[in-house]
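worker-3 :: picked DUF2325 domain-containing protein
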Amino acid sequence: MLQRFFLEVTQSQDSQSPERMALYDYDSRRLLNEIHGEEWRKLLEHLDTSEEGILDATTQDEPDGLRPLDMDSQPASNTDTSGRAESVGEIPQSAGAIELYRPPEDALDPVKTGRRKLWEIPHKYHCPIIGTCLTVEELRRIGKRFVWSTKERLSDYEIHVGFVSAAEERNGLSQATQKLLDKKFASTVRRYGKAKDQKAILALWSESLACGEVPSGLWALMSHPKTDAETMVLAYEDIHMLSHQIGAGQRADLKRLSETRVELNRVRHEFETFQRRSTHQAEQRERTISDLETALSDRQDACTQLEQKTELLQRQLAENGTSDLVERIAALSDAHALAQSRLETALSASQALRQKLSDTEKRAAELETQLAEREAERESLERLLTLNLSQQCEECPNDSCACRADLAGQLVLCVGGRKPLVEQYRQLVNSCNGRFEHHDGGLEDSHRRLETMLASADAIVCAADYVSHNAYYRTKRFCKRLDKPHVLLGNSGLSFFARALEQVAN
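worker-3 :: tokens ->
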């Protein structure tokens, strides 16, 4: 029977002897033995070099590629010029791994119809398929319907071995396993089913490895009708190396678990210390509360004794004829309380009068301000009326004739204002030697027209009580931005408008 092995040798750069040698069965990739140091040579002496498949060997770290080594040659004391070992008895200086020669994989039987069934896959791949694609709980659930329903509970390993053995041929257990695998990984199987050649299958397998979909990808690859023996070997090697990585990850997890346990013990110790300290503090607080309660009880007893002494003194005073004095003291106390109440009432009334006086003074100041404004408006109206009632004298050399406000031909734009007073606004402006235009403040006239009229006017008068908010703020911003003369009126009456014309003229 042909025996095929995989020999892995690890050697440091500064050492002549290997640090570790591991011997694996090629078909199952199972670790057969592991030796450290020089003892690895003894194992090679037991290999039958006459067996087919072990007659040739190759080393993988030579700069010129793979070179054959003669297994039958005796150990030599020196090496050739290239530094390559002449026999298996001497390890190359930089040897990393040695792989025994293995014949090519046997061709797979073609799939007649559909995909490849579990029992149609080579038996050496059943172990990684069962172990990677299905959990132990799933295997137990299937096994209960078959041979294990009446037996004692089997270990996880025994269940795994049983399924792997049953997968070699078609039977009830292998068919149930096939059905579960197809159902569990149906979407991935459909995706792999679109692949038509080995290149496409390997591309999908690489994607499955990258995104962590190894179980579904492995089953889809192994059961694909186009998968050949070489592709299965590549997938098998990836699973083998991935198991090493998972083992390393588990060791790292165990290390982190150990560190976490140490940290947990530290935190638990700190918590216990804190709990003891808190308990001690709580006991101290309980003692303090108890002491305070005792002191309070003593004070209450003292108060009771004082009350008793007071009652005794009152009785003694009554018995000694001092009741009249007590009555006078009570009457004086009542009189004092009444006087105090009257004083508080008087103070409240005085405060109210002071507040009323302050409000009256504020109102008087406001009325004086309004009166001054009305006087200014009246004077403006009187001057305008005097101007309108006086005779027009042509070419009068006196510029102050009839106290006239001269606008010097300026174009005055009125924004807003009462519509019935527009013509009177116009007459006032014309009588003051000015030109007049009106915009209703957005009631009917457009806001776009307002911009044009603002730009052409020399002065602007805006009445805030008859204008839209938009027109008011646009007029205000426009005049401030261009520093154009403007008057913002709070009232659109004639007197206010007349006063605004005087401000513009002056």
